[in-house]
């Protein structure tokens, strides 16, 4: 799903009408119906609803919302913060269709009147004052109305975006000025940057289709949201004629004395992600620990150093094991012993098999990123901000300041796929496109969740015969990894979550993603 600027959204609406013959009034009607549907579904107990409208198209969406809510039996109060004579175009048309008279408020004095105060007495507010075409700061009567909304404890559904917000804000600079709080947001066609990167609500953000065909949705940002619809085939029912050979064989190279669990978790995560087979090749002295983690994981012992890490002389054996494997995942628990780091660099350099590189496998390339290149093959790296900083030769603060730009540049320069972990994990393609993930939560800030992700990425890639689909396989792993964390938060909370909880959450994550992939509406929380 493309992320578009406010200007691009206006162009999409124009193109929808002018090129594809969908009347602008139809778009407004569909938008209002979507908001009303959200209110009915999620706020069914609200009986009296106040719809606060501005004089622009956002207000027009609010008028339609009010009409639909009234038709559903709700008591609706429409508050227009303008003279009706100021309404233009479609907003004026739908205002004329209101089944109830609006409370017209033209000034601060009228806003403070007893009649206006009674109108604001409601179980739910619908904020239809300002849309994504607005550039802050907000002032005057609108600012006073927003302040009234914010001072209340009533839930607020924002139409398109919370009033006062800058739709193009990308999280790099703090918002200035007054913004309406929102319990949930219903936006249309495609999200704007602020929906994704700004903390506009702690509740759901809904992207509802209102009639624009895919061909009309054009963006220059090269930014996308990961949605289950992007990887439907990964969560769809399998063929009755399936066997384990259809779903690939992952080879995990990792583990060391004291860190055997990392490789074991990655191996099991590959299976939970759907791979047919998973083998963990690890230092001989920790093999029993890995083998005891789950009976489904196969193991191979490797020569080791005195420190209990994989030795350089294991190289030939790893090459032999890699033959016929679908994906090679290197790094979980592998350690930073220099001999082992040199082995990692050599393996990555000569592997023709798709490679997933994580943890100390990434740290092996600190100050040596000239050796890390994915030309003419699939190479995926999954750094957290600290690992990304070491690879890029900058500070963690610099990584966090421009996550999208840095991930995009590194992917282009090194010709590989970057999965930059964190809040809003990013997946950057060598050609410059970036996908943003909306699943996951702070409870996943615990050791081992990255190893689970490494195994899942490898497991998804193992099922990918078409290299052109590798990007969506990676996105599927990232989305499902976060969704498993969100599901486990419901049962164990954020504070007590551990990495292996994600393995338990994955079956339900697949089920939910499969259902969501068939829906037109995409929703995320927080």
CATH architecture of the largest domain: 3-Layer(aba) Sandwich
Strand content: 5-15%
Sheet with most strands: strand arrangement: 8-17-16-15-14-13-12-9-10-11
CATH topology of the largest domain: UDP-N-acetylmuramoyl-L-alanine:D-glutamate ligase
The helix count comes to: 20
> What is the average of the pLDDT values?
96
Stretches where pLDDT falls below 50 for ≥5 residues? none
CATH class group of the largest domain:
Alpha Beta
Determine the N-to-C terminus distance. 18 Å
Q: Which structural class should the secondary elements be placed in?
A: alpha/beta
CATH evolutionary superfamily of the largest domain: Ribokinase
Radius of gyration: 26 Å
Largest sheet: 10 strands, mixed
Helix content: 25-40%
Shape: elongated
Describe it for me?
The protein has 526 residues and is α/β, with parallel strands linked by helices. It folds into two domains: 213 residues, YjeF N-terminal domain (Rossmann fold, 3-Layer(aba) Sandwich); 279 residues, UDP-N-acetylmuramoyl-L-alanine:D-glutamate ligase (3-Layer(aba) Sandwich), CATH 3.40.1190.20. It is built from 20 helices and 18 strands. The chain has a ten-stranded mixed sheet, with helices on both faces. An eight-stranded mixed sheet has the order 3-2-1-4-5-6-7-18. Helix 11 links the parallel strand 10 and strand 11. Helix 18 crosses helix 20. The longest helix has 23 residues. The model has no long low-confidence stretch (mean pLDDT 96).
Task: Provide a compact summary of the structure.
The protein is 40% helix and 15% strand. The two termini are 18 Å apart. It has a ten-stranded mixed β-sheet, with helices on both faces. Strands 3-2-1-4-5-6-7-18 form an eight-stranded mixed β-sheet.
């Amino acid at each position: 799903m493309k992320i578009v600027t406010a200007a691009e959204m206006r162009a999409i609406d124009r193109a929808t009408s002018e090129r594809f013959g969908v009347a602008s009034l139809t778009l407004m009607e569909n938008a209002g119906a979507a908001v009303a549907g959200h209110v009915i579904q999620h706020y069914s107990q609200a009986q009296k609803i106040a719809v606060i409208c501005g004089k622009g198209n956002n207000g027009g969406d609010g008028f339609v919302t009010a009409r639909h809510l009234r038709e559903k039996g709700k008591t609706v109060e429409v508050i227009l913060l303008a003279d009706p004579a100021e309404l233009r175009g479609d907003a004026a048309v739908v205002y004329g269709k209101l089944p109830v008279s609006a409370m017209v408020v033209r000034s601060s004095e009228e806003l403070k009147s007893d009649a206006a105060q009674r109108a604001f007495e409601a179980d739910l507010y619908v904020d239809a004052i300002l849309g994504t075409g607005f550039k802050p700061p907000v002032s005057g009567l609108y600012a006073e109305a927003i302040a009234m909304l914010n001072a209340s404890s009533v839930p607020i559904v924002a139409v398109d975006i919370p009033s006062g917000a800058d739709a193009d804000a990308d999280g790099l600079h703090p918002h200035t000025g007054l913004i309406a709080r929102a319990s949930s947001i219903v936006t249309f066609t495609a999200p704007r940057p602020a929906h994704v990167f700004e903390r506009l609500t702690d509740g759901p953000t809904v992207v509802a289709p209102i009639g624009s065909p895919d061909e009309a949705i054009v963006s220059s940002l090269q930014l996308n949201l990961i949605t289950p619809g992007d990887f439907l085939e990964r969560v769809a029912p399998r063929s009755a004629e399936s066997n384990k050979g259809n779903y690939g064989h992952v080879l995990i190279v990792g583990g060391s004395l004291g860190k055997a669990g990392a490789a074991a978790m990655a191996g099991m995560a590959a299976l939970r992600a759907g791979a047919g087979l998973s083998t963990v090749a690890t230092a001989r002295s920790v093999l029993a620990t890995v083998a005891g983690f789950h009976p489904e994981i196969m193991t191979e012992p490797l020569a080791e150093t005195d420190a209990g890490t994989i030795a350089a002389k294991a190289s030939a054996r790893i090459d032999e094991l890699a033959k016929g494997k679908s994906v090679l995942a290197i790094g979980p628990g592998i350690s930073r012993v220099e001999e082992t780091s040199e082995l990692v660099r050599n393996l990555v350099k000569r592997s023709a098999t798709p490679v997933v590189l994580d943890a100390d496998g990434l740290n092996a390339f600190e100050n040596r990123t000239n050796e890390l290149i994915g030309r003419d093959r699939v190479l995926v790296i999954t750094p957290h901000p600290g690992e990304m900083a070491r690879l890029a030769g900058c500070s963690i603060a610099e990584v966090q300041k421009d996550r999208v730009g840095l991930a995009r540049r590194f992917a282009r320069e090194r010709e590989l796929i970057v999965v930059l972990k964190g809040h809003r994990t990013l997946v950057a393609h060598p050609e410059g496109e970036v996908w943003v993930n909306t699943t996951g939560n702070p409870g996943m800030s615990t050791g081992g969740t990255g190893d689970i992700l490494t195994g899942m990425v490898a497991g998804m890639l193992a099922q990918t015969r078409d290299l052109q689909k590798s990007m969506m396989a990676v996105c599927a792993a990232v989305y499902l990894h976060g969704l498993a964390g969100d599901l486990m938060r419901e049962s164990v909370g954020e504070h007590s979550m551990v990495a292996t909880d994600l393995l338990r959450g994955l079956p339900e994550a697949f089920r939910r993603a499969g259902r969501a992939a068939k829906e037109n509406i995409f929703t995320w929380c927080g």
